[in-house]
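Exercise: predict the fold of this chain.
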Amino acid sequence: MIRKPFFNQPRQPQTRINNFIRASEVRVVDERGAQLGVMPIAQALDLAREKGLDLVEVTDKAIPPVCKIIDFGKFQYQKEKKAKEITKTHKVEVKNIRLKFNIAKHDLEMKAAQAQKFLTKGDRARIEIVLRGREKAFANLAKEKLEEFKSYLTIPIIIDHPITKDMRGFYILISKGK
């Protein structure tokens, strides 16, 4: 087992707090969000200690760096909470639903229910009707099938891409309306 050398491990937290702040002057914001102005680091640390809180460097990109007087544990908790919220957000996918030219009415209703389920989850749906052989001669009937499919959807929809000819047939791209 190979161990990492001790000196390569970080010695300070990623977010600088209290004595780990390197700047000589900082812009201070109190726990309520009120600007206290630019002051020397020693004065800012004394102010934080008086209130029984920590001086946390919010951003080091600004000149002078912005520091906030808050409880560091609470600050870390809210930071983790924001990170979890970002990972929770649903990524929109395009779900494919393939129809045949001679699909029965009940099957069309079932496919519409499936599309509706995708749309309510926040995904987009690409409804495709496949034409094979002699079916390609009846393009107008294929378009009517797609229009009939739209009529089976009970939720409001937005047509992102109208009925378009594809290599194998026609397709339409829809998403949930408001």
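Check your answer against the key: DSSP finds four helices and eight strands in the chain.
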